[in-house]
Design a protein that fits this description.
Region (Disordered): 1-20
InterPro entries: Bact_Sigma-Reg, GAF-like_dom_sf, HATPase_C_sf, HATPase_dom, PPM-type-like_dom_sf, PPM-type_phosphatase-like_dom
Organism: Streptomyces spiralis
GO molecular function: phosphatase activity
Domain PPM-type phosphatase: 397-604
CATH architecture of the largest domain: 4-Layer Sandwich
CATH class of the largest domain: Alpha Beta
Radius of gyration: 32 Å
Structural class: alpha+beta
């Protein structure tokens, strides 16, 4: 996360102190508090209808210590919930927690955790004129409580009063949409400092803190990534404490790494990120001493930490007290959290138990997510190492690839693809999938990919390649099977030969987008039989023919993938990179992400010799910044030879920007491909860095997004541009329109090329 993003987060954080409540929330909070006291309930919630999600979401919750487990959101059409039933029927409704477990046994365990004791819930509808907009709901910690007549009358009258107030506010243009998170309040205190509720007269006023902590703990149990956990912590901790600022840092080696912040100045975040543990600071002192530190905002160490915005310009930093919490596990400290508490925040002394719970909860969570992140990064690195670093771009064939890992978990996938330029000018395209999602499957995948590449390089046809690879897999005795599709393209002879072992056959499209039926004979998977009968299929190639090789993780059936390809091929105006992105988005929408998926997309652009006349390539070694100058010289010569000198100035500028970004940020070799088509010039820059290139509109020295202002120039001057993953890295491309005579245009032109 960038410093600017962290600083800007403070402007977006849900900071809602009582003094700044909107009029609607003041009305809701006052009524909820009064109901909590008068009904001796454990909690009272005011739910409003969220039309976009078809749910009733709590906008205000008045809670006691026994009411922290109240549900925040319920489906509007599920009448097992009292709030939903009252909203649907327009009548007072009572439900019991056991009803929910009976109707939804699949969530019984999670409900038992979130609502840890039996309860009774009664709700009455809320109206805005004739329209129902929500429900007023009361919770009691009793399993089968009958709603007394006086309590029902009280709820109905209170709901009627609240409805009239809300209707008046709506007439003034006040929104009736629920807030992203509920405003959580306790009962109004008496003069002696205790809650007014007779049932909990001596309970401490930390119930709202416990409420948010309880919800946060439940959310964090289903989160494995540090970034996601950090987002949840910021969303809950800031409103829970009424905090003006928060920063979260984790220990990496002997330094602190900032992972999230809200309401903090950029200067403070700069000083915190990368701070050595040996350097004195409140955060490092809390870690070293393994205890909570409380520092006034006026102290030298705390000055300048708050983000100054128009809303806080008149606020004195002395009104802020900083609490620095070491994030503890049972045996070590994993990080530190600094909370800037304002004047309306709970008293630190009264909240000691909650602060200790926060320290432990965050420590255990981030220890778990850091371990998962490390495992995921290792699995991802190994997976990427087994895929091609960069796809070749032989004359006559345009290629791109996509790999989508399975969603969730750190298991390695067995999908692979490859594109091999052979010595005779032909091209071998391969895609396959090894059974399983573990290290063994990944290792076998690497062995098969190497074997297929070796057999194809020796000049064997697809049938022989599959037969020999099958023999190898049997000899490895892994008890695994694999699917594989092998295609041999001959751009000179305009033919294609393919064979497949259990893998879906390629989906083919003509230049005008019509499906091409090849009648492929699908053989048995590799590793199943000792002498399988694989058969080859020959298909003639015409310029513009599209081949899509894919694994079964991308679509459930050939028909599903053909539909995904057909529905997108006519919408991308011939852009192969964009087409690959659309195929992935469309096909993955048809499937669950329980399996990884691979896509190898090829387009035949015409006979090799003719295509070679319109394609130029240049390779630059890693970190060779002088290669930028040489690339400009080569580009100038190529454009002159193609009689496109009028494009030289713009093409050189844009190519220089993209190549420089790739060398500086990508930290890999860079390949430049320039293609001349009938009506446009296309420049592609490929590297091995997987990070996407993104233009930024604000200059930031610390910005890590590749491209930055350079890509703004590309976006402004190019007729089209984009960036997409390719092999282990990515391709950044742009196009410039050209105007050439028909007799100078390439001989083979199709709707794929002329746009």
């Amino acid at each position: 996360m960038h410093f600017t993003e962290l600083a800007e987060a403070g402007r977006r954080a849900p900071q809602r102190p009582a003094s700044e409540l909107a009029e609607r929330d003041q009305v809701l909070a006052g009524i909820a508090r009064q109901c909590l006291c008068d009904l001796s309930a454990s909690s009272v919630g005011i739910y409003l209808h969220a039309e976009t999600t078809s749910t009733l979401d709590a906008t205000v919750m008045a809670v006691s210590p026994l009411g922290v487990a109240s549900l925040e959101s319920v489906a509007v059409d599920d009448d097992v919930y009292a709030s939903a039933a009252a909203f649907q029927s327009g009548k007072t409704t009572t439900r019991h927690s056991i009803d929910i477990q009976g109707k939804h046994p699949e969530v019984a365990v999670s409900l038992a955790v979130s609502v840890s004791f039996p309860s009774t819930v009664s709700a009455v509808p809320l109206f805005c004129g004739p329209r129902r907009i929500g429900a007023l709901t009361a919770f009691w910690p009793e399993p089968f409580r009958a709603l007394p007549e006086e309590d029902e009358t009280y709820l109905v009258r209170t709901a009627d009063l609240l409805s009239r107030r809300l209707e008046a506010l709506a007439a003034q243009g006040v929104s009736m949409a629920p807030a992203p998170l509920p405003l959580v309040v306790s009962a109004e205190p008496r003069e002696d400092g205790t809650d007014a509720s007779s049932l909990y007269a001596f309970a401490p006023r930390t119930a709202p803190l416990v409420y948010h902590l309880h919800k946060l703990a439940l959310l964090l149990t289903s989160t494995n990534r540090t970034r996601e956990a950090t987002t949840l912590v910021l969303e809950r901790i800031v409103p829970a404490f009424g905090a003006r600022a928060i920063s979260i840092s984790l220990i990496e080696s002997d330094r602190l790494r900032l992972v999230g912040a809200s309401g903090c100045s950029r200067e403070y975040l700069r000083s915190l990120d990368g701070l050595p543990l040996s350097r004195r600071a409140p955060e490092t002192d809390a870690i070293a001493q393994r205890r909570r530190l409380v520092c006034p905002g006026t102290s030298e160490a705390m000055r300048g930490r708050l983000l100054q915005t128009p809303q806080t310009a008149d606020t004195d930093e002395g009104d802020c007290t900083w609490v620095v919490l070491p994030l503890m596990t049972s045996h070590r400290v994993v990080g530190v959290c600094a909370l800037g508490l304002g004047a309306t925040s709970p008293d630190v002394t009264a909240a000691q138990a909650v602060l200790t719970a926060v320290s432990t909860l965050l420590g255990q969570t981030f220890e778990r997510t850091q371990l998962y992140d490390a495992q995921y990064a290792l699995a991802e690195k190994l997976q990427q190492a087994l895929l091609p670093r960069m796809l070749p771009q032989p004359p006559g064939v345009l290629a791109t690839s996509r790999y989508v890992p399975a969603m969730g978990g750190t298991d390695l996938g067995g999908d692979w693809y490859d594109l091999i330029s052979l010595v005779d000018g032909s091209v071998a395209a391969v895609i396959g999938d090894v059974q399983g999602h573990n290290t063994t499957a990944a290792v076998v995948m690497g062995q098969l990919r190497s074997a297929v590449r070796a057999y194809a390089t020796e000049g064997h046809d697809p049938v022989t390649v599959l037969s020999r690879t099958n023999r190898l897999l049997l000899d490895l005795e892994t008890d695994l099977f694999a699917t594989c599709c092998c295609v041999l393209l001959d751009p000179a002879g305009e033919t294609m030969r393919l064979a497949t072992a259990g893998n879906p056959p390629p989906s083919l499209r003509t230049a005008d987008g019509h499906p091409l039926q090849a009648g492929v004979d699908i053989g048995v998977p590799l590793g199943v039989q000792e002498n399988p009968d694989y058969r080859a299929t020959d298909v003639p190639l015409a310029p513009g023919t599209l081949l899509a090789l894919y694994t079964d993780g991308l679509a459930g059936s050939d028909d599903e993938f053909a539909h995904a390809l057909g529905s997108t091929a006519g919408t991308v105006d011939g852009q192969l990179e964009t087409l690959a992105d659309r195929i992935i988005d469309t096909a993955m929408g048809l499937r669950s992400r329980g399996d990884d998926a691979a896509l190898l997309l090829l387009r035949y652009e015409g006979p090799r010799d003719e295509a070679r006349a319109n394609v130029r390539q240049y390779a630059i070694q890693r970190r060779d910044l002088r290669g930028v100058h040489r690339t400009r010289e080569q580009l100038r010569n190529w454009l002159a030879a193609w009689e496109l000198s009028e494009l030289t100035e713009t093409a050189e500028l844009l190519t220089s920007e993209v190549v420089t970004n790739a060398l500086v940020h990508g930290d890999s070799d860079v390949n430049v491909h320039v293609r001349r088509y009938g009506t446009f010039l296309r420049v592609e820059v490929r590297d091995s860095d997987p990070r996407p290139a993104e233009p930024v509109t604000l200059p930031r020295a610390e910005d890590q997004a590749e491209g930055g202002r350079g890509l703004l120039i590309v976006s402004a001057l190019a007729s089209a541009w984009g960036n997409s993953p390719s092999g282990r890295g990515k391709t950044v491309w742009f196009e410039l329109e050209v105007s050439v005579d028909d007799d100078l245009a390439p001989a083979h032109r199709s709707p794929w090329f002329d746009r």
